[in-house]
UniProtKB/TrEMBL annotation:
The chain crosses the membrane at residues 6-23, 30-54, 60-82, 89-109, 115-132, 144-163, 169-195, 207-228, 240-262. It comes from Streptomyces thermolilacinus SPC6. Residues 3-130, 144-285 form the EamA domain. Belongs to the EamA transporter family. Pfam families: EamA. This is EamA domain-containing protein. The keyword Kinase does not apply. GO terms for cellular component: membrane. Keywords: Membrane, Transmembrane, Transmembrane helix. The keyword Lyase does not apply.
């Protein structure tokens, strides 16, 4: 069950990142974050009311609040990086944050077997190689790399926090709702500050019409990201955190393949080899 839910997480995150990257090429990144997460809040609110999940409220929800504070920072940095650099390069580097939940899992007593340790090593190397990597020293590229690293460790922190935020399925709905409400509050405050400092909340061309036309895509990004957090939490609660974290971090392969299929971004030989290693590592992890 852990491997299945973790792989579902990687698929959902990969598609959400691809969609978010595309949207930030047409609209301000903060607006993409706030609107997509607001849609997620509305949907989760209905689910919480329908399931009576508010009865699951407990001090564990502070983990969800913390994840909600860290999440917008990571998403904003990541979407900006995706808008600046090739998705097939940025996304794999973003997965380096896997060291955070893996370290937490080991600290909590996870002891992967030899086959799983081998799978972790192979998968992590594969994910990094899937990005190129192209780290030349031009100013824009340095900025892209720094933004990606901020996002990576932010995402890793969210993974570690959300897995601790609930112990039941209905409790998970409430935790995700609290997380997304916090996302909107933090992201909305950042957007307000940005506008007051002269930034834009709407695209220069098309304005609100662009956002309105992009609502289906924004909804997909927000809901896919929520679903990924949910499937990851289930995976981490039913098996070793290290196994769940590494398999969930295969999402860059999905993003790179989507960029290849839709945007015709060409994979270099090292990227193709990295994707193959990442998949081989996932097989070892699942087999272990």
């Amino acid at each position: 069950m852990t491997a299945l839910f973790a792989l579902a997480t990687s698929l959902l995150w990969g598609l959400a990142d691809f969609g978010g990257g595309l949207l930030t090429r047409r609209a301000p990144a903060l607006t993409v974050v706030v609107v997509s997460q607001t849609i997620a809040v509305a949907v989760l609110g209905v689910i919480v009311v329908a399931t009576g999940a508010w009865h699951e409220a407990s001090p564990l929800l502070w983990f969800a609040v913390a994840a909600g504070v860290v999440g917008p920072v990571a998403m904003l940095a990541f979407y900006k990086a995706l808008a600046l650099g090739p998705m097939g390069v940025v996304s794999p580097l973003g997965s380096l944050g896997v060291v955070v939940p893996v370290s937490v899992g080991l600290a909590l007593g996870d002891r992967p077997g030899p086959l799983q340790l081998g799978g972790i090593a192979v998968a992590v190397v594969g994910v990094v190689l899937a990005g190129g990597p192209e780290l030349r020293g031009e100013p824009v590229q340095r900025r892209t790399v720094m933004l990606t690293l901020v996002a990576a460790f932010g995402f890793g922190g969210v993974m570690a926090l959300i897995s601790e935020a609930s112990t039941t399925v209905t409790g998970l709905f409430l935790a995700l709702f609290v997380q997304r409400v916090t996302n909107v509050l933090v992201g909305g405050a950042a957007l307000l500050v940005s506008v007051r400092r002269g930034g834009r909340a709407l695209p220069e061309e098309g304005g609100v019409r662009v956002i309105w036309a992009a609502l289906p895509a924004l909804a997909f990004v927000g809901l896919a990201d929520v679903a990924a957090n949910g499937t990851y939490a289930v995976a981490a609660q039913h098996g070793p955190v290290a196994l769940a974290a590494v398999l969930a971090s295969l999402y860059p392969v999905v993003t790179a393949l989507a960029a290849r299929g839709v945007l015709k971004e060409r994979l270099r030989a090292v990227q193709a080899a990295g994707a193959g290693l990442a998949l081989a590592g996932s097989v070892l992890l699942a087999a272990g």
